[in-house]
TrEMBL record:
Organismal lineage: Bacteria, Bacillati, Actinomycetota, Actinomycetes, Streptosporangiales
Protein name: PepSY domain-containing protein
Pfam families: PepSY
InterPro entries listed in its UniProt record: PepSY
Residues of the PepSY domain: 67-126
Amino acid sequence: MDAVKGSKVLSVQSNNGGRLWEVQLAGPDGTERLLEVDDLGRVSGVRVKDTGQGEKARVLGISKDARLSFDDAAAKVSSVVPEGRITHMSLDRYGDDALVWDADVLTSEGVWRGVKVDARSGAVTKNG
């Protein structure tokens, strides 16, 4: 997040077995930026995602409405799947205006688990 001051994490996606991560950030005005980050935390590329005003407004809305930060949501996911490794996690609205952090977790046994955390209350709404 130091690469884009004032931004909030919208999603992370593991690539190449966790050696490279794609990180999507929301800037203070709703502008999305995609970063490539290596496993040592070095940013190798930043590009602006060219979206219209409607998408910027949507992104700004979800980033402001979420009370649970990416770090807090990742900690919550790790507490319910302590042996797991998060391979993808994103913030988005679903159905009846539910705002959730949606995570894909790979357990030490190689089993995929989906975990959803309410981005307002911090409650785990799906674990399995």
